[in-house]
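Section 3.1: Structural characterization of target chains.
Under the original work plan, the team committed to producing a structural model for every single-chain target entering the pipeline before any wet-lab resources were allocated. The record below documents one such target. The sequence was received from the expression subgroup and is listed exactly as submitted; it comprises 334 residues.
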Amino acid sequence: FLIIGIFIASVITTLAFFNLLSIFKIKNTADANLIFYCTACLAIFQWPLKVFDNSMKGFNLFHELNIISLKRSIASTFLTIILALIGFPLYTLIIIRFIPSLFFLLQKIEAIRTKFEEPFVILDQKVINIIRDIYEYSLWVFIVNLSSSVVNRLDKIIVSATLGIEQLPIYVGISRVMKIIIQINGMLKSAVLPIASEISETRDSLLLKEIAVNGTKILNIIFSSVAVAVFLFSKPILYILGGVALAEYSSVLQIGIVLLMPVLCRSFLNTLLLGTGQIIKMQTIWAVASSLLYLLICIYFIRFYGLKGAILSHPFTHIIMFAPWMFIVFRNID
């Protein structure tokens, strides 16, 4: 993660130093360069923080991680709003917003230290084999997460480079609303991984299928309720977030929600299978293929449909990749 952070920081610094921001239709002003330099510095520290998130997940500290993440988000948001109203410049807000992350990092370290009561192990052959298995599994999961990051990071670069930086706030605003639904869905299923691992150890396939069916039903009810509420009140929600400029795209948000509803029902089962490790390699191939397809669809939709196409490219990718996912699951699952 540190190496990735340094690489990203180097790319950002190069763009700002050699006045290459015009590639993304950004004016090469002193303030713009300063913002990019601040972002580069934070990239080096932001990526290693993810290590502690993964460590907490590895120790099954999902409850503690969700609480700490929620407190960090609330603190960062309120701190940013207050300082913005006071009149702090943008580059200082970027740095100050990162401060709560460092503070709550100490809580993550303490939670891990408390859980990890025996810091030393004897490296016999059995332990080495376990570490090798963990490394192999983690490598596949890392590729899956990296593929997801492609979708969540490169989309903004593509929109900025093709449509202009002035269109980015509208794209981010609407995409965030759709991703909030996905994030709620993700938080509700975050505790599935340890349960799936335990069941996989006992090889109780009947219990696994029972949890898969009932868990999917419950999660779909919760997700559908949130999605329907956002669909019905899309215009006032967008108006509150961004005024008239954002509210004009309420119909696009509604179309995106309709497209996402049938495919996100797979999220619980997908996470359950990820925890068992039964088809981890096939899931990785599917995730990489989805990311590459998304990039192609995003570029194609932007060319013909502009900003609306960019917003809907993500839901359309889910729709297209839903059938291959179903094929993989029902052909390989025990």
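DSSP finds 14 helices and no strands in the chain.
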